[in-house]
Amino acid sequence: MGGSAGAIIFGKDLEACKLDDANEVGLKEIDGFDILNGTSILCHYTNRPAEEVETIRQYLLEVSKHRKVVALPEEVTLFVNGGDIEAIGDRPYSVFENGEEKIKYLC
User: In the chain, helix, strand, coil percent, each to 5?
Assistant: First the structure.
């Protein structure tokens, strides 16, 4: 279980949160636990001012040309059970892949 940075570390790497957190300590190794099989995670995606969301969106469109990224608002969590991954919450979230954003809606 993890929230925010504790959730991001379960992804492939920390690349998706580069705009959120400066690498003040000079990390060279940014690999995560890769629980999501090659997918990186960004938290708090749409819980920001609109202009900040758009800046991050443009960044993730570029990043997703090389890796898949799941961008979650605070109201959505990922539940991982073995090989099954389920999004739980009451807001849409985004999946960035191959330079495109797909918005996913939960029931």
Answer: 20, 30, 50
